[in-house]
Amino acid sequence: MPQQRKFTLKESDIPTHWYNIMADMPNKPLPPLHPGTKQPVGPEDLAPLFPMELIKQEVTSEKWVEIPEEVRRLYSIWRPTPLYRALELEKALGTKSKIYYKYEGVSPAGSHKPNTAVPQAYYNMKEGIKKIATETGAGQWGSALSFACKLFNIECEVFMVKVSYEGKPYRKIMMNTWGATVHASPSNLTNAGRTILEKDPNSPGSLGIAISEAVEVAATHDDTKYSLGSVLNHVLMHQTIIGQEALKQMEIAGDYPDIVIAPFGGGSNFAGIAFPFLENKLTGGKNIRAIAVEPTSCPKLTRGVFRYDFGDTVGMTPLIPMYTLGHNFIPSPIHAGGLRYHGAGAIVSQLLKDKIIEADAINQTECFDAGILFAQTEGIIAAPEATHAIAEAVRQARQADEEGVSKTILFNLCGHGHFDLSAYEQYLEGKLVNFEVTQEEINESLAELNTPVI
Ligand SMILES: *Cc1c(COP(=O)(O)O)cnc(C)c1O
């Protein structure tokens, strides 16, 4: 019998509940603060932006939150997702370790993001909302939310960072195909956008600016809410279906990971795969290392500070206790657009501070080296974000071999790279460069912060 490669589940194995790690954390995250008063925000402060059910999920300490039947039914369009043993990659590395990966690229949008887009659109529909405004960087979140909104006939308005809007037309066409309206940000449709354009008519835009625009649209229209694809507690919780499925699949494989790895932007796909395994660790069961991997060009977890900071550039969002490089930090234009965010979610930040999880930073050429090796062995062309997890898995396998031990490694392959082929083209032509941030750049950005210190 050859070794089993693929571990699949039935539709009836789609999880019935989301896992809320807050219930098991030794130290709960500090509360978010109102941007004006600097007092803890209450549900009424968030009500203009989010439907009440999501606000409840944001603060609940209930350990298991039931997934609505309608959401589970729609999850089955792409779930359960497969888990593979990377036998060909193991062979190419000549490693004694076992490497598994969970593949989230089989969703309609090609990433893990529909896992939260669908329930977010569902709760908005339930509360009679007609339109959702959001931002997108390279287009992953915008396309996931466009798809989800169409399922519930909600209008979707996306502010897309201008450089991506101009440079990555296909993600925009995907959003249009699912019926969404897409604007290049900064736009002249909002005060936030107009303010930026007055200062710099040629502004390339940033995620922070686009968030400010979308939040403003939601805050100033009664029938419109805002939606975020990462960072917030409820978003991380929705993603835990990834790890719950992976737990079952590892059981079928007769294995249990020593190390769980995921790329890190705001924390949602990392939380998704790692939290269900951390439940076992936190409640006294099995030990495990969980490693979040960020780019060296945007190293908030490994080189940022832990303090309150805004989620956006203009300072309209609540202040979140987070590892941050400062909300004015503009990362270099690396290809892993989904990882170019200045901060991390509150839960993940607290877990890192308490040393329950670990973080590592890898530069983009090492990531693409691993991505090419992965494509040429396992066949899948990974999203640039996802190559960070592959590169870390390769690091860990090589280190185990050096130490003469065998590890079981699981990583999240959070998306495919079919719309990122220009990045692969640059790599293949030898034109891909690395961006290291200097300590001066980080210090400068942090010196501008006047947010509360923790
Ligand atoms: C958005 C995105 C990320 C980063 O966001 P997280 O919330 O940290 O998961 C990573 N990979 C892909 C493919 C993405 O689309």
TrEMBL record:
It is an enzyme of class 4 (lyase). GO terms for molecular function: L-serine hydro-lyase (adding indole, L-tryptophan-forming) activity; pyridoxal phosphate binding; tryptophan synthase activity. SUPFAM superfamilies: Tryptophan synthase beta subunit-like PLP-dependent enzymes. It catalyses: (1S,2R)-1-C-(indol-3-yl)glycerol 3-phosphate + L-serine = D-glyceraldehyde 3-phosphate + L-tryptophan + H2O. It comes from the Bacteria. Keywords: Amino-acid biosynthesis, Aromatic amino acid biosynthesis, Lyase, Pyridoxal phosphate, Tryptophan biosynthesis. Pfam families: PALP. The modification N6-(pyridoxal phosphate)lysine is found at K113. InterPro entries: Trp_synth_b-like, Trp_synth_b_CS, Trp_synth_beta, Trp_synth_beta/beta-like, TrpB-like_PALP, TrpB-like_PALP_sf. Its cofactor is pyridoxal 5'-phosphate. Residues 78-415 form the Tryptophan synthase beta chain-like PALP domain. Tetramer of two alpha and two beta chains. Belongs to the TrpB family. The beta subunit is responsible for the synthesis of L-tryptophan from indole and L-serine. This is Tryptophan synthase beta chain. It comes from Hanamia caeni. The gene is trpB.
